[in-house]
Amino acid sequence: GVNSRRQARTLIVAGRILLNQRSQSHAPATRVAKNDIVSLLGPETQSMRCGCATHDHVVENSDQRLWKFVLSKYPCVSSRSHAQRLCKGSVLVDGVAREDSCKVKEGTKVHLLSSEDSEKTNTSVVNISVHYEDEYLAVVYKPPAMDTNGIMQNNSKGCTLEKAASFSLVESCEPDKLPSPVPCHRLDRATQGLVVFAKTLQARLLLCRAFEERGVKKRYRAVVAGKVSWKETQINESIGGRIAKTKAVCVSILDVEGGNIAVHGVDGLTLEPIKHVSTLDLYPFTGRKHQLRIHSKSVGHPILGDKLHGRAISFKGGIKPMMLAALEVEFEHPIKEGKTVHVCMDEPITFLDIKKHLSS
Asked: I want to staple 15 with a disulfide (CB 3.0 to 4.6 A). Which of 10, 78, 247, 294 is the partner?
């Protein structure tokens, strides 16, 4: 069924090729020797790639990185990135999940969960809202206080968005499908909203390129401290010596009744009360780290709940989530020619509840 050089390269990079019954990271230009056995994994066998016969191994050499140990001991693990992905939830060290970069000591037991075990033990996976999905990509909602990917950090739910997506999204049937869906960009842990995932290798490459080349239109909703004096403005303050541009549009201004907002400086001192809050739509033209949060502060209107950039804003009755959400994305479909993917969600109900509370 392979009818072109491009398709052959895609299958090799995607890990669908076994050389001598071992799925390793082989370059497309690798030469095969006489009597080598080359196998192409079909959709059924690919889904069983992590079904290694032996799931438990005892570490014999100390001070070895976990991902390197997994790669060396399990024939079903095809590459360093594959091993690192497994370490995010499918590998246990003495019964505990550890970071892929940690060093495993001599005598510890490493266990690779089977797909069945992983599903049974994954009781902390969060059900996420899927706003768009096809064979190649998906757009899902990330709740606040959840990491997009990587190792969980103080996550009360014990789950990243990437891990949750692997259970919530339908597996692709394309020949270059990825082992699990991969986010093509990320949101800060405190930010909620829409995140684009790739389900195939080609979609991932093209979507990542689109984000890098600013081919994806994004709109964020933010509730900021104070009363803005403009209907629309352009913020061009550089971040880390690099160009950064954001367009801000005022949606509404709300009078705060009864001093319901307490403002704290970074040193914990209480500052003046806030009498107004403004709702803004923010359109980033560049993608610097914390760009919207820094730009909002630079014009004198920090985002409510942002504890990192100048002020931590809390409400009577307790700290509330940061009021920043990615509400809209639009881009050309990377595979389906002529198709535009446009996903828009409503302002989070928590934003509406908090603003209602402030005006009462």
From this structure: 78
Q: Which two tokens stand for residue 159?
A: 């789950």
DSSP assignment string, 187-252: --TT-EEEEEEEEEHHHHHHHHHHHHTT-SEEEEEEEEES--S-SEEEE---BTTB---EEEEEEE
| Distance in Å from the first CA to the final CA of the chain | 66
Q: Per the confidence metrics, is the pTM higher than 0.90?
A: no
Q: How many Å apart are CA 314 and CA 360, to the nearest integer? A: 17
Mean pLDDT by runs of 10 across the 360 residues of the chain is 66 64 57 74 44 64 79 76 75 74 83 56 64 97 89 55 88 92 93 96 95 95 93 96 96 80 57 82 95 94 83 57 94 96 94 82
- Which listed residue (100, 147, 188, 306) is catalytic? 188
Q: Pick the closest to residue 248 from 273, 269, 229, 275 (CA basis).
A: 229
Euclidean distance between CA atoms 47 and 53, whole angstroms = 15
Looking up tokens 């014990």 gives: 158
| Active site annotation includes 188 | yes
CB neighbours of 177 closer than 8 A, spacing ≥ 6?
Answer: 14, 46, 171, 199, 200, 201
pLDDT of residue 37: 73
**The one-letter amino acid at 145:** A
The pLDDT value given to residue 210: 95
Cβ contacts of 346 within 8 Å, gap of 6 or more:
327
The number of residues in the chain equals 360
